[in-house]
Write a structure and sequence with these properties.
Strands 1-2-3-5-4 form a five-stranded mixed beta sheet. It is of the alpha+beta class and 383 residues long. The protein has two domains: 171 residues, no CATH class; 151 residues, Histidine kinase-like ATPase, C-terminal domain (Heat Shock Protein 90, 2-Layer Sandwich). The protein is 68% helix and 9% strand. A hairpin with a 2-residue loop joins strand 2 and strand 3.
Length: 383
């Protein structure tokens, strides 16, 4: 993240250095030392290009304290140099040499040192501009003092803004990295330890070992969920539903089930919770009986005013048209679990079911439940 900002600032330096040379050309008649001014602007361009090349090989070097401090000193020298290059009494915000280039130093301090570093850099450049006014023998009138203060505040705000944004991004990036690490650990535990506990429960003949494995499985599932992040009551409620379903499924199947619940999922009514429990257990039962799947993924997310549950397996799949064809007398009664225990059960609480499956390509069942509508019905019933 920081490296992207560093590269952008490198290109900004080059553009600012070129602009400084253009300004020299337009203000040539107000220069004390035109030759030196041209040489200074050329050197500025060379330095900007050199820094850009350094960023390609070692961008971390540009964020080091020594480099940032040296660049601030260099920026202060450039600022004061403007007071020497221009005729006495003409130094101002419009004729300050390389002022756009100097801004890059302030922004870089914000990137390296955060909000306070950006503000400190702005103050340093503001002081350098004050020195420039005295070097140039520019009369410090009220309007020029106000302009000087305004410029200093602008530099401070720019440095503070970049520093604050970078600090927030760093924190978010750190939290994201921790979340990825937790997810990797949770996935490893889920796919390894949990499935081992399930196998122990299925194959062991000792009741004490079976009970111990079941208890450890339950505790581990709870630990993996509660330690990943802070969840709302609605998320906990939905999680408990699926953990109950997965726990029941694990009693007769060793197929691993991965559960992912969005952190902002809506609440569901008691009737919807009950219907979802039964429908999902039937879905997993069908996976065990017919799919030859190696894994199952369950995704729960909010979409508009609905809770959408997607159950996806990597099994053999089936021809859904044939299975759902009620007029097919040969299959009558064979697939009633799919029709009655899943589709009909969800439709009774105002939801819908979409089945996507093809032979050899696995199966995806998408269950949609009207969250807000279900909640409103419950409130009416309670009143």
């Amino acid at each position: 993240m920081e490296y992207g900002i560093i590269k952008a600032l490198c290109w900004y330096r080059i553009i600012a250095a070129i602009f400084a040379a253009v300004v020299i050309g337009f203000t040539y008649d107000k220069l004390n030392y035109p030759t030196y001014a041209i040489m200074a602007s050329g050197a500025l361009i060379v330095i900007a290009i050199t820094i850009q090349q350094i960023s390609r090989r070692d961008p971390a070097l540009l964020m080091s304290s020594s480099f940032v401090i040296c660049e601030l000193i260099f920026a202060s020298v450039i600022t004061i140099l403007g007071g020497i290059l221009y005729s006495q009494g003409t130094s101002s915000s419009t004729l300050a040499f390389g002022s756009q280039y100097v801004l890059a130093s302030v922004l870089m301090a914000g990137v390296a040192f955060g909000l306070s570093g950006g503000i400190a850099a702005g103050i340093i450049i503001g002081l350098a501009r004050t020195v420039t006014m005295f070097v140039n023998a520019t009369e410090l009138t009220a309007s020029r003092s106000l302009s000087l203060l305004s410029t200093t505040v602008t530099f401070c705000l720019a440095g503070a803004l970049v520093g604050g944004v970078v600090t927030i991004l760093r924190k978010a990036g750190g939290e994201l990295s921790q979340a990825h690490a937790r997810d990797n650990i949770a996935r490893t535990l889920h796919d390894g330890v949990l499935q081992t506990l399930v196998i122990i429960q299925k194959r062991s003949k000792e009741s004490e070992i079976i009970d111990l494995a079941a208890n450890q499985e339950k505790q581990l599932r709870s630990f993996l969920f509660t330690n990943q992040s802070q969840h709302s009551d609605s998320v906990v409620e939905v999680h408990e539903v699926f953990e109950e379903v997965i726990s029941k499924f694990s009693k007769f199947s060793s197929i691993p089930v991965a559960l992912i619940i969005a952190p902002d999922v809506h609440s569901l009514s008691r009737n919807s919770i009950k219907a979802l429990n039964g429908a999902c257990l039937e879905c997993l039962s069908n996976v065990e009986k017919h799919s030859n799947a190696k894994s199952v993924n369950i995704y729960v997310e909010p979409i508009e005013d609905n809770v959408v549950v997607t159950i996806r397996d990597d099994g053999s799949g089936f021809n859904k048209e044939e299975v759902l064809d009620e007029d097919n007398n040969n299959d009558k009664g064979k697939h009633q679990g799919l029709k009655n225990s899943i589709i009909a059960r969800i439709q009774e609480v105002g939801g819908s079911v979409i089945i996507k499956s093809n032979p050899g390509k696995g199966t995806e069942i998408e269950i949609t439940l009207p969250a807000k509508l279900a909640t409103l019905k419950d409130k009416k019933n309670e009143s």
